[in-house]
Amino acid sequence: MAKTILIVDDSTTLRQVVSIALKGAGYDVIEGSDGKDALAKLTGQKVHLIISDVNMPNMDGFTFVSEVKKLPAYKFTPIIMLTTEAGEEKKAAGQAAGAKAWMVKPFKPEQMLNAVSKLILP
Fold first, then answer.
1. Domain total in the chain
2. C-alpha span between 22 and 93 (Å, rounded)
3. pLDDT for 35-61, tens place per residue?
């Protein structure tokens, strides 16, 4: 059975690029247009990994990660922050919120798939 990854980004184009790479590698994909939308899509189904942007309307990535970590079903779901932010302060905030990895845009699909394969839940 394919593993499911939730992609959270307010850019439709970016979600498509990530989705194509992940589907090509055999993963199932759920998409959220921002933190609020993505939280609404976490309805108890198994999600093996979350990839989230930081800067989004309605609910930013840090708030989203903090909220996800409060949900018993997703408390241990690994989260990769995928963002244009490269500053140490932002990285520290992401880690404090519960993110496991930090990837800076633009990224190469191979880099992302490599990170996904290392972090995804069994």
1. 1
2. 26
3. 999 999 999 999 999 999 999 999 999
